Amino acid sequence: MINFPILSLITFLPIIGMMIILFIPKRQSLFIKSFTIIITAIQLALAIFLLSNYNFSLAGINDIKSFQFVEKFRWIEIDGFAWLGKIKIDYLLGVDGLSVPMILLTTIITFIASISSWTIDKSIKGYFLMFLLLDTGMIGVFVALDFFLFYIFWELMLLPMYFLIGIWGGPRREYAAIKFFLYTLLGSVLILLVMIGLYFSSMETLADGTRVFTFNMLELMNPTNYTQNGILSPLNPANLRLIAFIGLFIGFAIKIPMFPFHTWLPDAHVEAPTAISVILAGVLLKMGTYGILRISYPIFPDITKDLLWWIALFGAINIIYGALTAMAQKDFKKLIAYSSVSHMGYVMLGMAALNTLGISGAILQMFNHGTITAMLFLLVGVIYDRAHLRDIEGFGGLGKQMPIYTGFTTVAFFAAIGLPGLSGFISEALVFLGGFGNNSIRIIAIVSTLGILLGAGYMLWTLQRVFLGNLPEKWNQLTDVDTREYIMFIPLVLIIIFLGVYPSPMLNLMNSSVNAIVDVVEKSGLFLKSIGSL
Amino acid sequence: MNINNFLSDIDLIYPEIILVSTLIVILLYDLIFTKNKRLLPFFSLSGIFIATLFTILNFGKNEFAFGYGSNNYLLSIDDFSNFFKLIILISSFIIIHFSILSNEIKICIDRHGEYYTLLFGMMAGMFFLVSANDLIVIYVSIEILSLSSYVLAGFVKTSLRNSEASLKYVIYGGVSSGIMIFGMSLIYGMTGSTNLAEINSILKVTALSDITFLTSILMVLAGIGFKISIVPFHFWTPDVYEGAPIPITAYLSVASKAAGFAVLIRFIKIMFLSGITNNEYWVLFPIIDWRSLLVIFSIITMTLGNLSALWQDNLKRMLAYSSIAHAGYILLGLAVLSNQGLTAVLIYFIIYLFMNLGAFLVLMLIANEINSEDIDDYKGLGYSLPFLSAMLSIFLISLVGLPPTAGFIAKLYLFIALVDAKMIVVAVIALLNTVLSLYYYIRVLKNLYLSKPNERYIKIKNTSLSYPLVFILGTPVFVFGLYFTPITDLAKYSLKILGI
């Protein structure tokens, strides 16, 4: 067993790195770059160490005893408010089968993004300070089990992201950055409101028997903790649980991004520097779906069960709409941005199935989309670094000029399409199996399969336009993949192929937690409905 | 009028006595040593320091002072007033440092005696205001406060905008205090008393609900509303804030606003309270629907403040509108009409003190360097003045209310109070206002970091000695964002208002 606070270490290691970089003079750019890579590498090593010590049979989700590497201490404690009981906020970290894949994904993507950031040449110190701050925010979201703490980490990401897009981005970076900021802030204030509402609706029983309001997610999930007249308590006939669920859902959906809240994504992706696009697509989008699985599902199981059809419908809209829009794009990066919208639709569809297959598929798809799309953005970054052009029509015949690059791109594209043998196939298949297995959303799942066809359409068409045909005269100076780029691509390709051929380790990792989510939603959903109807 | 126990009650007002004595010392020193003004800030700081000690000693005392008649008192020295006195003292302490650093004030070195005298005049006015238990004391202390601040707003005689600010302030201030004293005289006419607690006991037996009484209350509100600049009594704020010297603007936006809120809370809670429910909500006499009235005022105030701030190109003016918006948020805490809402107000003030003064301080230091308050002149300044720009960003982010800064805690407690009172729609409106406010605060950050540096400012070498002060203001903004037990404790212990 690990007997040091590994989760805190993974989370705050980047902050420590940030403090050190703050005192390094600007001129030492080489040192700053390599130092950041070392920090992210240590993080990755810690994550792998965590995985090797992880007990696959414990479920987590709503039971603190089956969470692992739990760290808990009282952070804020205010006694004696006669009208409030006590206020207490815990510093509570822990992982289960839902968060471990996300931590792995985050550490892998950040490590690769830090290598990809090597080409940054403008205010390097500032860039890596923001990069590391963002890193802490991302890991923090995936390990926090206290809603208040979760929210702090959630908001902590906004400002660095704003600067990373706004300072180091493309020509329309200011517009893209502020759009990202305003959209996500709108989402987070909705989350904040629901958080406060939940706080007043649930009371936890302390060891000494006193009852206190709580931000602890696991206590909020416990249906017996509800107060008589809290506004989000099912015991209160005039409760606002439906509205709160929708508000919370929109808050998370903006991050996914779900149609019609997706419009910030193409702008942010197109303007962001490559490494930041990679993080945005690889990790940030997953926070939306992670939040829904971690918070919305177990805390609002009764409402979740009622609205599954709608979640599936919006998932299907995302799949089809994203694919159709992607097909119409001329900008390489925008195409991948819209393909992200489409692929995140599968995650929503899988979640809506609410069975083991569907939710496993959804989490696996989160992981796979993270690695595949990260790779796609890196690939676009490679060609953009050389040609300073992202217009699909401007290329052609690159297959002859850059054969290795073409090889990597083909693997990533086929994985995105869902070719058997590559990771994308497994997760999409699981999502559809889950969708077909749930009677109420079967029709939606069937319609969504159209998305696979459309996906193959735009991906193959793009491959054809960029890599086949005749090479325009001006591109015959382009060089193929260099060593640094090999280092970025090879791990991702290995993951994509490994999970395509042998997905069991990943599925085993999440299996007990996925079963627990399904179980919690079913059981507490029924329980809450029964006490609500009394 | 016969004051009972006059001499023994003197003990309770040592802080006020210290302030007035310091004022006299400064005045005399200025008259005697006409050449050397350098000791004046030192006297001021020591005066404030001693007054702070006495204020801290007064915590927990909860006594009335200067009773007259059967059971009427002029002042109440309770923890509520001590809390606001502390806020005023801390901000005065910081403002003295502002004044030392300010280029605007430095120019008028020969009139520094006048400057510090007037500052202490304001302080004394505010001290009596937050303790006032009687309409007359309220009026007189508002006048002491206002007259000093009128002069200070126009302190730099050579500056046209200072004089304009001062004149506008005098005119608006004169009209509103005229309205207020008229309202007070009507209240006296109807109840036969000027004492808040006595009026409360009169309201208990006779239900005064006719239109004259309503009008008179609204007239008093107009006077207090002027001080805390809530819409529609805010018209002076942007002009005066933009025109006055920055230390005075900062002082008006924090200390004088705090004093205004203190008296508003006392006015409502003591005069109209008929009981408290067991979950600490206030039951007021049904003369006015206070909650709706205050909610409407605060929503209009915050929305108008935020919308107007969107269009400002001058950072000082923008901060003026932002302070109007913040007055709206704070008023919302009062509108909950519960002790919890009151806690939120007090917490908001502690945090607002640091973040708003911090923003003004950096604004002033940057203005010292580049001689401009124009947001467009801030372009690329993040690269030539990295420390100041970073601190300005932190203060502005805190004003938006994003974690992990203290501004988030201020907003959090406000929303906790609103949600507990089931005022969900109001909470949603306030949250949307927060999103709106992000747009103009972030515009400053955008200019600081996202724009190409302005050629003129590339060579700026900042050698200011002011960094420690910026740091002192910045630390609480971070520390209270992550660990807010001390401020909530302080707020909680300061809720006790005497006379209820």
Q: How would you characterize the overall build of this protein?
A:
The complex is a heterodimer of chains A (534) and B (500). Chain A has a two-stranded antiparallel sheet. In chain A, strands 3-4 form a two-stranded antiparallel sheet. Chain A has one domain. Chain A contains 21 helices and four strands. The mean pLDDT of chain A is 88. Chain A has helices at residues 6-22, 29-52, 99-116, 124-143, 147-156, 158-168, 173-199, 217-221, 241-255, 264-271, 274-299, 301-327, 332-353, 356-387, 398-401, 403-417, 423-437, 442-448, 450-467, 483-501, 504-532; strands at 68-81, 85-95, 203-205, 211-213. With 500 residues, chain B is mainly alpha-helical. Chain B has a domain at 289-500. Chain B is built from 21 helices and five strands. In chain B, helix 9 (196-205) packs parallel to helix 12 (246-272), helix 15 (339-370) runs antiparallel to helix 17 and helix 15 packs antiparallel against helix 18. Chain B is globular, with a radius of gyration of 22 Å. The model of chain B has no long low-confidence stretch (mean pLDDT 87). Chains A and B meet through strand 1, helix 5, helix 6 and helix 7 of A and helix 15, helix 18, helix 19 and helix 21 of B.
List the strand order in the largest sheet of chain A: 1-2
Secondary-structure-based class of chain A equals mainly alpha
Distance separating the two termini of chain A = 46 Å
How many strands in all of chain B?
5
Mean pLDDT metric of chain A: 88
Percentage of residues in DSSP E strands of chain B = under 5%
Largest sheet of chain B: 3 strands, antiparallel
- Count of DSSP-assigned helices of chain A: 21
Low-confidence stretches of chain A: none
Helix percentage range of chain B:
over 70%
Oligomer: heterodimer
Helix and strand pattern of chain B: EHHHEEHHHHHHHHHEEHHHHHHHHH
Strand content of chain A: 5-15%
Gross morphology of chain A is globular
The description of the largest β-sheet of chain A is: 2 strands, antiparallel
Task: Output the radius of gyration of chain A.
Answer: 23 Å
What is the element string of chain A, with H for helices and E for strands?
HHEEHHHHHEEHHHHHHHHHHHHHH
N→C terminal distance of chain B = 24 Å
The mean pLDDT of chain B is: 87
